[in-house]
Amino acid sequence: MKEDTSEPNERQQDRSPAADAASPALEELQKAYDDLNSRHLRLAADFDNYRKRAAREIDALTTYAIEDFAVELLEVVDNFERAEKAEGAGLREGMEQIKKLLMAILERHGIRPIECRNLPFDPERHEAIACIPSAAEEGIVIDEIIRGYCMQDRIIRCAKVVVSKGMEE
Questions:
Q1: Which residue did the predictor score with more confidence, 33 or 9?
Q2: Count of C-beta atoms within a 10 Å radius of residue 126
Q3: What residue ranges in the chain does DSSP mark as E strands?
Q4: Which of 101, 136, 162, 169 has the lowest tally of Cβ within 10 angstroms?
């Protein structure tokens, strides 16, 4: 039995012009695909590099975020060291100057003391450590044991206070 081999050749010959016409279009599509794929890979690599760089920058920022603040506080430390060497009346004046300097530094960084004397007790801002009878009405802060501070609008330390429980009868 002899196979007819002319038929596949004829089919190949019939497809040959169509395949030749499709081949450039296929090559163009393959080239476009390769171009887009390489662009995608470069973009993915660029994004990965950006993500890593941003993470390094954030890490550096958090590590050195308080550097300027620390440098300013070193001025206070220097003044304390000078005050330790001083004697007499100059010592008290020096300590007052140091306190003013420190408060100015804190203020520049948005850290302010919480005012509480003669104001109603506020459990969000105050921590009552004693409640004593006094001439002030009940619930009024009459003494501040430890000053509280806030940074911007956030309380970073509550004030420890003494609260009036009114007049005892």
A1: 33
A2: 22
A3: 111-113, 126-132, 141-146, 149-151, 154-157, 159-164
A4: 169
